Amino acid sequence: MEPLVGLIVDIEDSNRRRSGESLLSASRRSVRVLIVEDEPATALLLEGMLAELGFDEVQIAYDPSAAGDAIRTIPPDLAILDVNLGQEPVRLLAEKLRALDIPVVFSSGQQVGVLAPEWSDRPLVPKPLDKRMLHAALRNLGFKSN
Predict the structure, then answer these.
(1) What was the pLDDT predicted at 90?
(2) At 138, which helix (H) or strand (E)?
(3) Is residue 1 part of a domain?
(4) CA atoms within 13 A on the CB side of 59
(5) Is residue 4 part of a domain?
(6) Averaged over 61-84, what is the pLDDT?
(7) Considering the domain boundaries, does residue 52 fall inside one?
(8) Other residues' Cβ atoms within 10 Å of the Cβ of residue 7
(9) Dmax of the chain from CA atoms?
(10) pLDDT computed for residue 37 by the predictor
(11) Based on the number of CB atoms within 10 Å of its own CB, is 132 exposed (0-12), middle (13-18) or buried (19 or more)?
């Protein structure tokens, strides 16, 4: 599989995120991705996979507090959240992202049933991480190559 290059997002019409339309348009820029993962090795592996898929603006937060700071500074276009961040619930962060219309991909080493029913429509990339599964999750959210 050839790596995707220049993944892009439409920055003028955030309503497309809600309707599930493609995030491609004539007005384009790089996709900003926020990884929220408490295991540094896993976060760096995920960052590398995203780079291979064409994402060049990736920020890592190791806890929900750091993620909240990142969201306030420069909101991402996409967030990838570890379901289990130690003792801190990821649910509150996911709800904040949903309120901002920021698509979320979940990641977990647990079985598929770990997501609450209100999040069951969001992609879940199982651990150990697999680039093909990540790619499928991103395409499911409308992130496509040129």
Answers:
(1) 85
(2) helix 131-140
(3) no
(4) 19
(5) no
(6) 94
(7) yes
(8) 24
(9) 43
(10) 96
(11) exposed
Task: Give this prediction's pTM.
Answer: 0.78
Compute the average pLDDT of residues 75-83: 95
Q: How many residues does the chain have?
A: 146
Residue 58, pLDDT above cutoff 50: yes
Whether residue 5 lies inside any domain: the answer is: no
Q: Greater confidence, 82 or 145?
A: 82
What is the span of the domain harbouring residue 109?
A: 15-140
Q: Give the 3-state secondary structure of residue 47.
A: helix
Structural contact between residues 91 and 36, judged by C-beta atoms closer than 8 angstroms: no
* Domain count for the chain: 1
**Burial category of 20 from C-beta neighbours within 10 Å (exposed 0-12, middle 13-18, buried 19 and up):** exposed
| Cβ pair 83, 91 in contact under 8 A | no
Type of residue numbered 90: V
- The secondary structure of the chain, three-state, reads CCCCCCCECCCCCCHHHHHCCCCCCCCCCECEEEEECCCHHHHHHHHHHHHHCCCCEEEEECCHHHHHHHHHHCCCCEEEEECEECCEECHHHHHHHHHCCCCEEEEECCCHHHCCHHHCCCCEEECCCCHHHHHHHHHHCCCCCC
